[in-house]
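Lines hold sequence, tokenised fold; shown next:
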Amino acid sequence: MTDAHRRGVRVIVITVFNGRPIPPVSAAAARFHARCGHTDNRAMDEREAEDDRALAVVGAQSKRLHLPEALYRRYPDGTAMYEADSAIFTGISPFDHTLDAVTKRIVERTDSVRPDLVLAPVGIGSHIDHLLVSAAAQQLDCIVLHYEDMPYVIYDHCRDWQRDFGVRTAYLHHCSDQAWSAKISAISCYESQLEVLWYSPGTWRKDLDDYAVAIGTGQRAERLWSFNEQ
């Protein structure tokens, strides 16, 4: 994003799942808030503040769609869809009908700006919200490339992700030193997430660097994928 911004490209980051939970939150959501250092009634405000700081670092604009993330979604009778943290990593549930709403809002937002390129997650790690955004993005009438979900892509249990997802074509973007520094600075803004997402939070900078150098064959790179021939 920083390299694009430096070239005068308008970069917009769409946050799909920033809807506020209806209290009281589920036990799984409360556990997640506690691990992140959030309070139940301020969690999304605090996460959006982190997001604003990160996007300012890389020079991107923010658009938010205000849909509730998995741990906040409920069935019509009010019970939580995902009672356990692990349940959000088991693929798209046939009982979770969020895809239509996600697709509708992403299509509306992208149509309003007519982008030259859309980047969306692959869905590595099978987090349901990443999978929903990935599936919705594939319905767009424009060029869509998919980025590798970090940190899931570096974990052993996701090593066969390319086979599982059927991606077809890879594109490498080699990062300038300035862009890489900005990326690291932006990631460090998400203080509440780092301890939760990384198995070894103290090594996240090295983990990212090692992976970027490995896929870039000696030079830091980011890898983007297509599910179709572009």
